[in-house]
Amino acid sequence: MQPRMSKISASGTPVVAVVGPTASGKSDLAIDLAIALGGEVVNADSMALYRGMDVGTAKLPLGERRGVPHHLYDIWDVTQTASVADYQERARRVVDDLRAAGRTPVLVGGSGLYVRAVLDHLEFPGTDPVVRARLESELDDVGSGELHRRLARHDEAAAATIHPSNGRRIVRALEVIEITGGPYTATLPTPRDVYPGVQIGLDLPRPELDARIDLRVEGMWANGLVEEVRRLAGHGLREGVTASRALGYAQVLRHLDGELTESQALEDTQRATRRFARRQDTWFRRDLRIHWLPPTTPDLTAIATALCTPTPGAP
Hints:
- By secondary structure, this protein is an alpha/beta fold.
- It folds into two domains: about 15-120 and about 190-310, Rossmann fold; about 130-185, Histone, subunit A, CATH 1.10.20.
- It is about 45% helix and about 10% strand.
- The chain has helices at about 25-35, 85-100, 110-120, 130-140, 145-155, 155-160, 165-180, 205-220, 225-235, 250-255, 260-285, 300-310, and strands at about 15-20, 40-45, 70, 105-110, 195-200, 290-295.
- A six-stranded parallel sheet has the order 3-2-4-1-5-6, with helices on both faces.
- Helix 1 packs across helix 12, helix 2 packs across helix 3 and helix 4 (about 130-140) packs across helix 7.
């Protein structure tokens, strides 16, 4: 495969994003690109922002980062509710500092909204703790399906983009609708770049990706996920609205509470992760700016680097 000509303008340090579903190989490519481009890695995985959530988020150990600085890992306590607005402020500050120093920011992660919060013009409505608490209580009482049906009545377009099982996003959408009096879709990002740059998506056939996911989850169990969750449970994991619902962590908590056997928790994590990967793929496929590449090609790094290298005179 021949590298394509980059369309990045030579003016200004570009921002590179490596995106795609879980287990597709994003972390390794991000490090390869950071080394090739003189850059540093910036996390865009919402769960990797949490301290101590290492095994279940496949967070690369320091010894495997090949000397490349990594930013925005381990910044939140597991009791803290995720905030895209907080992440956006932190991430753009890191990106701006790196660009000012002539270093290429390499954004990497599968949390689509977090990626777009950095790259696109996007402002987040505030939050109302009273409204949020009420909606989260309703989520616990009636389930995500009922709240999703309510969302569909208020904002059909938003409901179409949020999976009925994604209670956290449903609650946020309903909160925004109640606070602003307008549709949640009016607050979603539009594809207007904040920075010059390129997005690279890793594209695997579904059966191969599913097999990778199953192996990754088995590896997490072998590497001590149950022990990690047990330790974090002693530091408030159950009280964390976001962290306690993360893939793997929610299932292991149910195992520790006697609701699932360990094998059931593992299998449920595999199934839930495969479903999540499909939703990730659907999200990213809507963005026509992404260059999709197969992660198994032997010259992947060369092709990706060519896409990310500024071309003099490019618009």
